[in-house]
Amino acid sequence: MEQLKTIMMKNLKIPFLAFALLTLGFQSCVQNQNDQKTSQHETRKVWSVDKANEWYKKWGWLRGSDFIPSTAINQLEMWQEATFDTATISRELGWAEGIGMNSMRVYLHHKAWQQDPKGFKNRVAKYLDIADSHKISTIFVIFDDCWNPNYKIGKQPEPKPGIHNSGWVRDPGDLYYQDPKLVDTLESYVKDILTTFRDDKRIVLWDLYNEPGNSGYDNKSLPLLKKVFTWGREVDPSQPLSAGVWKLALKELNRYQVENSDVTTYHNYGDPADHRKWLDSLRGVSKRPLICTEYMARSRNSLFSNIMPMLKSENIGAYNWGLVAGKTNTKYAWDTPLKDGSEPKLWFHDIFRPDGSPYRQDEIEVIKVATGANSR
Q1: How far is CA 301 from CA 18, 160, 278, 305, 360, in A?
Q2: Using CA atoms, how far apart are residues 376 and 373, in angstroms rounded to an integer?
Q3: Using CA atoms, how far apart are residues 78 and 144, in angstroms rounded to an integer?
Q4: What percentage of residues in the chain have a pLDDT greater than 70?
Q5: Can you list the domains of the chain with their CATH numbers?
Q6: In the sheet where 241-242 sits, what is the strand order?
Q7: CB atoms within 10 A of CB 155
Q8: What string of H, E and C letters represents the secondary structure of the chain?
Q9: pTM, two decimal places
C-alpha cells in the first residue's frame, strides 16, 4: 500500500486529494470480487469492475438534477398523499426534458412509507411513470444526514424567508439515536422499497445514504451506513448500490463508501481546478464508473459552463442541485441567508423559475449544447 501511495503521488501530482483517497485502503481484490452469491444465505458481494462498467454502458451519458417539485419544501411534502403534486412534477420534468436532461436524483423518506406503505409505493410508481413519460430515469436516495434533525407526518412548515433548505429533513435523523426500535422499521422500509422496485429498469441506482456524517454526526453514521448496505445486498436488486463520497476528512466513512459501492458516486461544489483534482484522485483508486450526484453552486464557480462539459468529456454522470426554484429556497446560498426573502443577486442553485422561465438564458444554451437538445 505504501508503494502504491508513492507511485500515485508522483503520477497524479495532487497530494491534497490523492492522500485522502489513497488512505481509503481501496484494494484491487475488492474491485474484482465475484458479485454472485456463494450460497442461499450469503448476501451478494460488491459488483465486479467489469459488471459495473458493462452496466454503465447501457445508460450513455447521464445528466440531470437533484429534483423536488417547487411546491414541496421537503421529502415528506413531496411524498405524502395530500401534497403529492403530479401536475407540478410532470410540468417541471417536461422543462428538464426540453433542455436535454435524461435523469433525476430524488429523495425518499421512511416516515412517508411508515404512514402508508402501499400508498407510498404507489406514489413512487406514479412518479416513475411520469418521469419515464419524459424519457427521464431516476436515482433514488434512501437516507440523508442533511439539514433539520426532526420531522413529523402531516402539514409541513412554510419556508423561512431567504434561508436555504429551511424545511428539509434528515432521514432518520436524531430519532435513530433516541428510539432503539427504529432500526427495525428502517430495515423493513429499505427492504420493502428495494424489493418492490428491484427490477425496475427506470431506476439507475440506489443511493443508499446521502452525505453520511454530515450535521456533525461524523463516524456516528457509520453503523447505519453499514446496515443499509447489508440490507441492500440481502435484497440484491438488479440496480447498483452506492453512497457518495462528499468530505475528505471523513476517512473511515469514505473508505467504507468506496469499498462497498458498486458504482463510485461523489459530490463536488468546487471550481474546475478543485473538481479536476477529485476526478484524477478517484480515477486513481477506482476503475468503476463515476457519477457526480451533486454539483453547481454559482458563487463557488461551480457552473454549467465550466463543469458540465468537463463531466461530459469524461463520461461522468452529472446531476446538479436544483431544477426549479421553489419552497426549498435553494436559490439562496448555504451561508448567506437573506431573511427579508428578497431576490439574491446571484442564485446559488436551480435553473428555472416556477413559471418555467429560465434564471439565465445563457445557461440554458450551455446545457442544451452539452445535452444535444439544440440539434433535435
Answers
A1: 22, 26, 16, 10, 15
A2: 6
A3: 15
A4: 88
A5: 60-375 (3.20.20.80)
A6: 241-242, 203-210, 137-144, 103-107, 63-66, 317-321, 290-294, 264-267
A7: 11
A8: CHHHHHHHHHHHCCHHHHHHHHCCCCCHHHHCCCCCCCCCCCCCCCCCHHHHHHHHHCCCCCEEEECCCCCCCCHHHHHCHHHCCHHHHHHHHHHHHHCCCCEEEEECCHHHHHHCHHHHHHHHHHHHHHHHHCCCEEEEEEEECCCECCCCCCCCCCCCCCCCCCCCECECCCHHHHCCCHHHHHHHHHHHHHHHCCCCCCEEEEEEEECCCCCCCHHHHHHHHHHHHHHHHHHCCCCCEECCECCCCCHHHHHHHHHHCCCEEEECCCCHHHHHHHHHHHHHHCCCCEEEEECCEHHHCECHHHHHHHHHHCCCEEEEECCECCCCCCCCCCCCCCCCCCCCCCCCCCCECCCCCECCHHHHHHHHHHHCHHHC
A9: 0.91
Closest by CA to 221, choosing from 282, 145, 150, 149, is 145
Task: Count the alpha carbons within 13 Å of 68 in the hemisphere toward its beta carbon.
Answer: 25
- Over the stretch 251-264, which tens digit does the pLDDT of each residue have? 999 999 999 999 99
How many residues appear in the chain? 376
Average pLDDT over residues 22-45: 49
Residue 267 sits at φ, ψ, to 5 deg, of: -120, 140
Structural contact between residues 331 and 347, judged by C-beta atoms closer than 8 angstroms = yes
Least confident of 30-39, 247-256, 306-315, 345-354: 30-39
Instruction: Please state, in angstroms and rounded to a whole number, the distance separating the CA atoms of residues 117 and 291.
Output: 30
- Higher local confidence (pLDDT), 150 or 17: 150
Contacts of 14 (CB under 8 A, 6+ apart): 277, 280, 281
Please state, in angstroms and rounded to a whole number, the distance separating the CA atoms of residues 85 and 87: 6
